Amino acid sequence: MNQLEQLRQFSIVVADTGDAEQIQEFKPTDVTTNPSLILKAAQLPETQAIIRDCIMQAKADNESNWQDDAIDRLAVEFGVSLLQRVPGYVSTEVNARLSFDTQAMIDNAKRLLAYYVQRGVNTDRVLIKLAGTYEGIQAAKQLEAEGIKCNVTLVFHATQAIAAAQAGVFLISPFVGRIQDWYKQQGSLPTEPNLDPGVQSVKSIYAYFKKHKYSTIVMAASFRNANQITQLAGCDRLTISPSLLADLATSDEPIENTMLDNITQPIIDDSTGINEENFRWAVSNDPMTNEKLSEGIRLFYRDHQNLKTMLVNNIVAN
Question: Which of 16, 45, 165, 169 has the least C-beta neighbours within 10 A?
C-alpha cells in the first residue's frame, strides 16, 4: 500500500481544499475550507456563475452589507458542492474579523447554517469553524449546547485545546506547520525530525485528551511536509493539502501508529479548569502562540477582504 492508503488505517483523512476535482481524486472522508482556500477556488472559471448568483441574492436581501453576505453565501455554496463529494463533514468558517466578539460569531454561524438549510443540506454534516480565541471558544460552547458542531481552529497552545475540550467542542485543529515556521524563524528549530515542535504539540494534546477521556476530536492541520503527517499517523483526523496527499500517494515507505510514543512537550494542569484570566495569560505569555494566533486571524481576514474586492470587480466586469 502507498502511504495514503496506510494512513487511512490509522486516521481519518480530511482534504484541506475547496477544489472539487481534487476531492474527487483523493476521496477524503471530510473536507475543510477557510477564506484563503475559498479565494483560490473562487478564481476558477467554473465558479463565476455561482459568484454572480451569490451577489444577486445578497444584494436583494441585504443591500447595506451585501459583500459580507455574499461571501457567506459563497462559502455555503462551496460547502454544498463539497458535501456531495465526501461522506463526512465540511467545515465552514465564520468571518475572522469577528474573532473577538462572541455574539457576532454565534450570529454569523447561525446565518451560515440557515443558508445550508435553504439548500436542503443536513446541517449535522456541517462544522462551524471558529478561531481559537477566548471569545471563539465561548461562542463554540454556546453553539455546541444548541446542537451545532464546531471546529475550533488556529490552535497553537495546550490551553486553547483544553479550554475547547472543557467547552464540549466537537473538534479542534492544532496547527503543525505554523508552529514549525515560528521556531524556524527564531533559529531554534530542532534538527531531528522527531523533535518537530508542531508534531510534539499535537502528540501532547492528543495524549492528554485520551488520558482525561475528552471526546473532542483532534484534527492536526497545517503541514509543511509528508514527514510531519506520517509522524502523526493515528491522530483522530489529519487535514492535508492536495499537494501533500499526492506525495503520500506516490510513496510506499511503511508508516505506523506512534501517537502515544515519545510525548515530550509539557502540558498544563487543568484540575481547576481554565478561566478567562489564565487563558489570556497563557496565550499572551507564549510568544509563538500570541504571534501565530494573531497572524492567522489577520491572514484569514485579509483573504476575506480580497474576496470582497473580487465581488466588486465581478459586478464591474458584468
Answer: 45
Q: How far apart are CA 219 and CA 38, in angstroms?
A: 20
pLDDT digits (tens, 9 = 90+) for 276-295: 999 999 999 999 999 999 99
pLDDT digits 0-9 by tens, 245-277: 999 999 999 999 988 665 555 566 665 678 999
Does residue 154 have a pLDDT over 60? yes
Cell (9 digits) for 219: 484534527
Active-site pick, 27, 129, 213, 308: 129
Q: Which domain holds residue 135?
A: 3-317
Of how many residues is the chain composed? 318
Q: Residue 274 is part of a domain; what is its CATH number? A: 3.20.20.70
pLDDT digits (tens, 9 = 90+) for 176-196: 999 999 999 999 998 887 889
Domain count, the chain: 1
SS3 of the chain: CCHHHHHHHHCEEEEECCCHHHHHHHCCCEEECCHHHHHHHHCCHHHHHHHHHHHHHHHHHCHHHHHHHHHHHHHHHHHHHHHCCCCCCEEEECCHHHCCCHHHHHHHHHHHHHHHHHCCCCHHHEEEEEECCHHHHHHHHHHHHCCCCEEEEEECCHHHHHHHHHCCCCEEEEECHHHHHHHHHCCCCCCCHHHCHHHHHHHHHHHHHHHCCCCCEEEEECCCCHHHHHHCCCCCEEEECHHHHHHHHCCCCCCCCCCCCCCCCCCCCCCCCCCHHHHHHHHHHCHHHHHHHHHHHHHHHHHHHHHHHHHHHHHHHC
Q: State if pTM tops 0.90.
A: yes
